[in-house]
Amino acid sequence: MIVRDKPNLFQLFFTLRGSIVPLIFPQIVLIALLGTAVALTQEYFPSIFPSFTLAPLALLGVALSLFLGFRNNASYDRWWEARKQWGQLVVDARSLSRQLTTYITNDTDNGRQTQQLMVKLIIAFTHALRHHLRKSDPWTDITPYLPAAELVSLQRSKNLPDAILRLLGKYLAKAQEQGLLSDILSKCLDERITSMAQVQAACERIKHTPLPFAYMLLVHRTAYLYCFILPFGIVGTQGLFTPLFCAIVAYAFFGLDALSEELEDPFGLAANDLALTAMSRSIEINLLETLGETELPEPILPHNYLLQ
Amino acid sequence: MIVRDKPNLFQLFFTLRGSIVPLIFPQIVLIALLGTAVALTQEYFPSIFPSFTLAPLALLGVALSLFLGFRNNASYDRWWEARKQWGQLVVDARSLSRQLTTYITNDTDNGRQTQQLMVKLIIAFTHALRHHLRKSDPWTDITPYLPAAELVSLQRSKNLPDAILRLLGKYLAKAQEQGLLSDILSKCLDERITSMAQVQAACERIKHTPLPFAYMLLVHRTAYLYCFILPFGIVGTQGLFTPLFCAIVAYAFFGLDALSEELEDPFGLAANDLALTAMSRSIEINLLETLGETELPEPILPHNYLLQ
Amino acid sequence: MIVRDKPNLFQLFFTLRGSIVPLIFPQIVLIALLGTAVALTQEYFPSIFPSFTLAPLALLGVALSLFLGFRNNASYDRWWEARKQWGQLVVDARSLSRQLTTYITNDTDNGRQTQQLMVKLIIAFTHALRHHLRKSDPWTDITPYLPAAELVSLQRSKNLPDAILRLLGKYLAKAQEQGLLSDILSKCLDERITSMAQVQAACERIKHTPLPFAYMLLVHRTAYLYCFILPFGIVGTQGLFTPLFCAIVAYAFFGLDALSEELEDPFGLAANDLALTAMSRSIEINLLETLGETELPEPILPHNYLLQ
Amino acid sequence: MIVRDKPNLFQLFFTLRGSIVPLIFPQIVLIALLGTAVALTQEYFPSIFPSFTLAPLALLGVALSLFLGFRNNASYDRWWEARKQWGQLVVDARSLSRQLTTYITNDTDNGRQTQQLMVKLIIAFTHALRHHLRKSDPWTDITPYLPAAELVSLQRSKNLPDAILRLLGKYLAKAQEQGLLSDILSKCLDERITSMAQVQAACERIKHTPLPFAYMLLVHRTAYLYCFILPFGIVGTQGLFTPLFCAIVAYAFFGLDALSEELEDPFGLAANDLALTAMSRSIEINLLETLGETELPEPILPHNYLLQ
Amino acid sequence: MIVRDKPNLFQLFFTLRGSIVPLIFPQIVLIALLGTAVALTQEYFPSIFPSFTLAPLALLGVALSLFLGFRNNASYDRWWEARKQWGQLVVDARSLSRQLTTYITNDTDNGRQTQQLMVKLIIAFTHALRHHLRKSDPWTDITPYLPAAELVSLQRSKNLPDAILRLLGKYLAKAQEQGLLSDILSKCLDERITSMAQVQAACERIKHTPLPFAYMLLVHRTAYLYCFILPFGIVGTQGLFTPLFCAIVAYAFFGLDALSEELEDPFGLAANDLALTAMSRSIEINLLETLGETELPEPILPHNYLLQ
């Protein structure tokens, strides 16, 4: 995620960090070159594109803006829903550790250990979910928070965050059996675990179900066809300015297209993706504070405007 | 569901897998032929379509884009809601088996058997729901997970997934009567069963209530009328390029139309439908792991980019 | 609801069942006649509409498509929400009878009778709600499912479905008093009754709160003004084809308008309304099956493609 | 709320009841007069507006339709959400009184009195909320339903509906203390009271948070600028018909604007506002029926098509 | 938030309070100056921009209105969601204090103190959340409502509102341990605390996750490019009126842009931001009234139409 104040007019046009221009530079150049070729041909052989007008372009433009608008809305909804799910995870993590540290008694060793164990498992779940979604290696981040006895069985699991949740559920059931919690409060805590399972399933849904492939084809093909026709449509009136206008229009349409594609999978490390690392760290700090720890890790700060 | 990376520019134009071009090829050809006929007529009898302009086309285009945009949004919402419902099923299946295996004691034979029986019934429900939605035969997939004693009565049922849920509810009530669960925890598990009933009803709703038939008529009729008028509208300015532009515009409009139609019923086996088989298998693996099984079935992988 | 496969190209243009053409035929003819009059006048007195162009038409068209698009979305949302509410009723009816037949013991006469009584009341509620929404006579459908002793007091009620729900609540409280259910499970069943009250209130809301009347006036007036100006706007360029184009444009705009109007109240018996009769019957069959009945009524099938 | 069948074509154009024409009549006349002035000037000094075209009008029209469309959607959403909240109040009022009259025993004097007292408080809440939202005097409507002992303290309250809910909560807690309700059922009833608090807060939100003021300025200024430019843009082609077209376009744009403004605060007494009086009365009748009363007040009927 | 009645026509055009004109004045002037330069150049060297037409402008306008429309919707949704979250806070604060003052007995000193302590903590949470979102100093507002013993530990906390919620949870658990509340009612109150944690997390989400930076770049760049091309596009037909039309179009597009930017972070002190101070004060008054206090602080009133 890019975190910076609004740039001034000069910066606005020359900022590359977070911009999608680098991604679509080849397309813009391609269309501008085509525009140049058409404009020069027209300049030297004025009668070669005599009767072309904007008519088909306008008709196709209606369809294209329909496609781009739809895809942009759908992608942004996915991005924002992903953010909401992580916001829900913040609530669940904070509330569950609040409940664990207040309803389970502090007075016995067993109670204290259960609190420690379970709150740490929630931290482990948070990191494990992030690595699961980014397909990166979780073990450095989570090993300190896992009970040593369970490490081997967790390593064999096919779905690590789900296995951690099951472990959390096991400890909860044990706490209830040992009389640390009444069954009503146990239900209350169980609801938070189910809610965390819901967050995980929603993130997996967004990660593993892209927009139907056919949309991608339809949008791209129509965008390219549109931009290939464009110079023929405007060369009659714009003359040698044709390449400039082609580049500007291509920037607007391909830019929205590329941005939609980036937002479609919001869990990556690209400039406009969600700052999952910073969010997990923030949950980690909150939960350690709940346990009364005083040596807390540092929050993640943006590096060159980029927060990951 | 098509699972593949973004194709390059060449592949983009020639990929047929997952594309809707094969579906609408007849329409494109029809409109292109009409365009050819009109262009040739105009070429040899230049004065035959003298006064036609784009005016009615532009007015009709506004209506058509309204219809197509609305229908596309509605169809995509159905597709995405269907995916969300299956995501909810993932949560319910995982959470219910987590709860069954932690709250019901493992120490007695009866407890262990109840766990086994009920978790397997959840797997059976998942497969049964998929086959129910696809109107295919469920018995091969689900028989191993059903208690032999109930097989006959289930086979007589008019709505198999619903009957399995009722059976699940019966075992839950029995477990509570036998003292394996307190009534509070029993309520907690019952909520998951109700949530699974909700998933089923929502899928049945999407399956059995298509968009109002009149929309389909309205969209199709307007699209055809538009494309039939199109060549007359542009032949005056585009001359012999008329068939090309007709084909491109027809591709964009009929393409969106055909894709909307495919997404409207997301439970089929078409290229852009949901990967229900893979999702049920993934639930199956998760739940067997919860039971501590070590011989797990293989996950379903995409075949020629297509995941079903 | 119209239930049929996609018609072929020929059927597409000549299907009247489920189409809104019959509803808007007078408007189309009116506009076409006006178009004919204008075209003929122009033919014989060519200089009478000399300076008219499309400008005001295009400006008004923007407003009209805004109105029609908004109204169509709002009406479809009402229709789809109504369908969702009935889907929720399916869940509530199925879940409540599942809970009644599993949590209330089967072993005593009293338990069995309570099960029978309450599940039948749910069926009665379903039919009563349908008749309430359609303002038709419910007694033939519901009398067999009502306890004879309550018939008189129900007949005096001002809001029959609400009175049935109250009766259901009374039996539930009685069952709890008699010890057939613990208070926790009783709360669990009570939530389903409240959910059914929610379905009823939502259906009543959709039924009794149409879109603000002023929208209807605004949409209709603008649509008529647009279509009255239309022939003057296009006669200069389209000549004798004016009536044809007028009819097509009128079809598109008035068609969407009429369809929106039909969907606005989704509980009627029109071709695009919801199949409430079939859904109530399907709930009836499900619930009788839950009670172990073997003589079940037949499901409702579409008649001439129309499912009611 | 206007309640009437669809008017015929003649009525359609001349109905004023519920129409927004009276509200925007001054604007329409103003624009038409400006159009007349421009048209006459053009008639006598044909060369005075020589080069004006529709270009800036079309560009501004895009922005204007964006603004009007957005504002209309936002206002309608507020109106419909307000209606949904009152629908939720119907559910809460009906369900809470159903629960009160079934779970609290009828056999003791205390039980009967508690039922009476609390159900009447719900009626009082409904009326009080309506008057709170309309800033009218509630005491005539609610005094008969309030316990005389609490009247004074309620009259001092700064937020009457909230004070009634607190009173309802106090009686509920008392009922539980006296053993009329178990604590589980008490929680069940408490959820309904919280839900009524939610309805109140949502209505207050809609009432006290209008759309940002800057939108209003932006929409109005753009609409006026657009309509002031309009006659200059079309006089070249429409001649003496300019005032007519100006009036029609002004009707469409200002009409939508005025309607959005009316819907933005849906709790008033204007023609398109919600029928809160009728809804409160209907809740009143339902709840008195629940208490077994036989002398019920009459439902509110529309007066000259207007239901308040 | 601006609170005022609809201004009359004269005020409408000259109101600056709450308007976004002051924010975008530099852009409007810049575009108008460019328009002047182009118009004068055209006046003296008529042949210098001979062939420019509106074509590229119209094509780019489609993209621009797509971007502005999307961004406006997204920003307004954030603003309205933020308002809804604060509405939920109103419900939670009112309901939790209602429950505290009715379910915890008033008869013992301990009970009364617990009520006082906890209701005051809710007030402190409200103020702390507001200051947290506005990054301002909370201590003046909240110190009177905090227990002196906890002051030091709260001052060390990294996330003050979260720490207050944890404290609230601690007192709740203590109340339950001391037998002031049954565990079922305790769960009921705990749900409200979790709901307040949800409000906080949602507000933090809106505060710390702006729209993807790339949108901002895309919208601004396209808007500037559009307005830079604009005078060349219209000077051919509008002549010396070019600067006027440029300024009007720039006002409409940059105005919507600036307003979207202001609404994107709704927690500030700008004219169109939410009136958090007034809302917190209103909660404060409500809750003190619940405790039976009679000396209540004054509600916040708008100052020069501005309510903060």
UniProtKB/TrEMBL annotation, chains A, B, C, D, E:
Transmembrane regions: 20-42, 48-70, 213-234
Cross-referenced Pfam families: Bestrophin_2
Keywords: Cell membrane, Ion transport, Membrane, Transmembrane, Transmembrane helix, Transport
Upper classification of the organism: Bacteria, Pseudomonadati, Pseudomonadota, Gammaproteobacteria, Chromatiales
Coiled-coil residue windows: none
GO cellular component: plasma membrane
Species, as recorded: Rheinheimera salexigens
Family in the record: Belongs to the anion channel-forming bestrophin (TC 1.A.46) family.
Subcellular location: Cell membrane
Main localisation: membrane
PANTHER family: UPF0187 PROTEIN YNEE, VOLTAGE-DEPENDENT ANION CHANNEL-FORMING PROTEIN YNEE
Alphabetized InterPro entries for the sequence: YneE/VCCN1/2-like
Protein name in UniProt: Bestrophin
A GO MF term: chloride channel activity
Protein's membrane topology: Multi-pass membrane protein
